Amino acid sequence: MSLAIETADTSLEDYLTVALGDDLFGLKVALVHEVLDPPAMTRIPNAPSFAPGLINVRGNVLPLVDLRARFGMARADDTQASRVIVSEVSTAAGETFQVAIKTDAVYEVIHVRDSDVSAMPEYGSRWPSRYLDGVVRQGDRFVVLLDVERLLDDA
Questions:
Q1: How large is the greatest C-alpha to C-alpha distance in the chain, in angstroms?
Q2: Which distant-in-sequence residues (6+ apart) come within 8 Å of 153 by Cβ?
Q3: Contact of 109 with 16, CB cutoff 8 Å
Q4: How many CA atoms does the CB half-sphere of 152 hold within 13 Å?
Q5: How far is CA 117 from CA 12, 33, 36, 65, 112, in A?
Q6: Counting Cβ atoms within 10 Å, is residue 52 exposed (0-12), middle (13-18) or buried (19+)?
Q7: Domain extents for the chain?
Q8: Amino acid 2: pLDDT
Q9: Could you tell me how far CA 19 lies from the centroid of its own chain?
Q10: In this structure, is the dihedral angle defined by the CA atoms of residues 53, 57, 59 and 61, taken in order, positive or negative?
């Protein structure tokens, strides 16, 4: 009699799907600490347009990254569905800190197999490839996978 041992599929990664307009993006769940309604923001003079200010999350001051601004999209007012995702990022020196990322909506967690991730096409994509890890098909839609740490480049 043989004993089968189940092992976790290490090629699977969980992503939280978020929306900007009609487009879907994925953030690695391992980097997500919490999802919040958008709190009040304090604008910072001379801050980059994609990181216009700071928010207070339970006494912690976090920089706010507006994904719409980061991707050069038109500004949109907050709606009932707007959310802020608190995520952890690492610096080149290996230090970690938290950042808040503003999105139009948050949907669900999807399970992505490494082999299902494709590189973003060089042509035909309106999203800057330097901020992306790839793209995956989810049902009849595509989910663009974000590299959260590179979103802060040039900040």
A1: 70
A2: 130, 131
A3: yes
A4: 17
A5: 11, 24, 28, 25, 8
A6: middle
A7: 13-151
A8: 43
A9: 10
A10: negative
Q: What tokens appear for 72 in the block? A: 């050069």
Per-residue DSSP letters for 1-60? ---------TTEEEEEEEEETTEEEEEEGGGEEEEEPPPPEEE-TT--TTS-EEEEETTE
pLDDT block averages, 10 residues each, the chain of length 155: 49 93 93 95 92 94 92 89 93 84 95 88 71 87 89 68
At the topology level, CATH places domain 13-151 in OB fold (Dihydrolipoamide Acetyltransferase, E2P) (2.40.50)
The residue length of the chain stands at: 155
- Per DSSP bridges, beta strands 96-103 and 32-36 are unpaired
What pLDDT score was predicted for residue 26?
A: 95
Beta bridge partners of 92: none
Q: What is the pTM of this model?
A: 0.84
